[in-house]
Amino acid sequence: MLSMYSDAERVHQALQAGVGGYVLKRDLPEELCGALRQVAAGGRYLSPGVTGTVIGDYLQEKRGPDALDALSARERNMLQLLVEGKSGAGIARKLYLSPRTIETYKARLMRKLGPDDLRALVKFAVRHRLTPLD
User: Fold this and answer.
1) pTM score over 0.70
2) Beta-carbon count within 10 A of 109 CB
3) Number of domains within the chain
4) For residue 110, what are the domain limits?
5) How far lies 122's CA from each of 12, 28, 62, 75, 116, in Å?
6) Which of 90, 94, 120, 129 has the alpha carbon at shortest distance from 9?
7) Separation of alpha carbons 29 and 22, rounded Å
């Protein structure tokens, strides 16, 4: 597959659909030729620009369930509220905490679970069935 996208989600979808290789459009033509040769010989190929993303996503998934066991009840509650789309200020009011405390919890969750932004944290929670999709 030749694509302009290097995010793990699209790469995973392509691999699950059965592609033997994934090359980025920004790669050099030699990269594409090497990928075609390798796949034609029965192998698999990932562009170097995609490999780091896929490995990082894999490691995050492996770290996930164990890290979930390390969360306190308050951290799990905080994760649920964040995933539901509640604002930091809204969570602070609901739990009678300061907005700064909420930010500290959010940072701690990201450090423990691996995602580096709120969007990735939501994907993590959905992937590990911590929250429903609706």
Assistant:
1) no
2) 22
3) 2
4) 70-127
5) 18, 35, 17, 14, 11
6) 120
7) 13
